[in-house]
Specification:
Mean pLDDT: 90
Low-confidence stretches: none
Largest sheet: 2 strands, antiparallel
Helix content: 55-70%
Shape: globular
Strand order of the largest sheet: 1-2
Distance between the termini: 13 Å
Length: about 350
């Protein structure tokens, strides 16, 4: 991480400025121009849940991806002021996702809706989605570039919510089992699209000086970044059911009834409990999901994890996630038209932060 420290410091400063800790800042006056600084307590009550989650940490790999793409293609720091467009919606999605899944923990602390109430969590999460528009409105770019970025941002926000809609439908209905192809599509929308947006934002910013990135390069960048995002999500799901994810409870995906890739591979595979046939496997998954509704402490959670491990589903899912990340890394390592080789080297190595 040391080689990324300087870039992350710049990124953190931009994000911190756009989500201030105190009312009365010049930035907030631009966010709420008609209020003339009125209602400071209400303003901070709106900002505080998002700031709380933001200050708990996170890899920041999405804005880092945008920044390194921009630098690699010769845009220097042009994308820096626009990075809240990537990171704020990600944090907004975490707030809403935890509420929708009734999750108890995020980044080592109680989920935002448990600390601030569901109504405040919904409102503050929505605000984090909309705050990037104020960033874009106050950005000093040309009207043409502002319109291009707005359209890009809006498209990916719609895709993100469609992916979340698919995920919600699947975990609310225990009898509804998506195919692996459907899961990959959902994951590409829910998680991959923000990574794709990050890469495309970096490419757009690199072209602000007039040297636009070619359509073919833009398409390939987006595809590679989406693979990176999907691979990251798959590995995240594997860790939830194996080593556990720092800041979350091991096995809470079972409590949520999440139809993650390891679960779908278990249902589709052979070995261990899989030898009992598909109907028996479906019955087993349904029984464990129902029992896990009481919390991660019920024995069925560990029984479920043990069965997926025995069947090789966790290992197979990890293999697929690693392969997607490796494909993305290979593309970034061989990215043509590099104007900043040092940034290109960092971009190629970014995949190691996600493994």
């Amino acid at each position: 991480m040391k080689e990324y420290a300087a870039a992350l410091e710049k990124i953190e400063a931009v994000l911190e400025e756009a989500l201030p800790a105190q009312a009365g800042s010049a930035w907030l006056d631009r966010v709420f121009p008609s209020l003339d600084g009125l209602y400071p307590e209400q303003t901070m009550a709106l900002l505080e849940p998002g700031r709380d989650l933001f200050k708990r940490g996170g890899k920041r790999w999405r804005p880092l991806l945008a920044y390194l793409v921009c630098r690699t293609l010769g845009g220097a720091d042009a994308v820096l002021p626009l990075l809240p467009l990537v990171e704020f919606p990600h944090n907004a999605s975490l707030i809403h996702d935890d509420l929708e899944d009734n999750s108890g923990e995020r980044r080592g602390k109680p989920a935002v809706h448990l600390l601030y109430g569901s109504d405040t969590a919904i409102n503050s999460g929505c605000f984090l989605y909309f705050l990037p528009l104020a960033v874009l409105e106050n950005w000093e770019g040309s009207p043409e570039n502002r319109d291009r970025i707005w359209r890009l941002w809006a498209e990916h926000m719609r895709l993100l919510h469609l992916g979340q809609s698919m995920d919600i439908a699947w975990h609310r209905d225990l009898a509804l089992i998506p195919s692996i192809e459907e899961y990959m599509l959902m994951c590409g929308l829910k998680t991959g699209c923000l990574a794709r947006f990050a890469a495309l934002l970096g490419a757009e910013a690199a072209g602000f000086g007039g040297n636009r990135v070619s359509p073919d390069m833009t398409l390939s960048l987006g595809e590679a970044a989406q693979k990176l995002g999907v691979g990251f999500q798959i590995l995240d799901d594997v860790k939830n059911l194996s080593t556990g994810i720092p800041g979350k409870k091991r096995g809470d995906d079972v409590v949520e009834g999440k139809k993650s890739l390891p679960v779908l591979l278990f249902l589709a595979g052979s070995g261990g409990l899989n030898d009992r046939g598909l109907n028996d496997r479906l019955a087993f998954v349904s029984r464990c999901f129902k029992a896990a509704g009481e919390g991660v402490s019920v024995p069925e959670v560990e029984e479920f994890i043990g069965a997926l491990t025995e069947a090789g589903a966790l290992a197979e899912a990890e293999k697929r996630g690693q392969a997607l990340i490796a494909e993305a890394g290979a593309f970034f390592a061989n990215l043509g038209d590099q104007q900043d080789p040092e940034a290109g080297k960092l971009l190629a190595g970014l995949t190691e932060l996600l493994r």
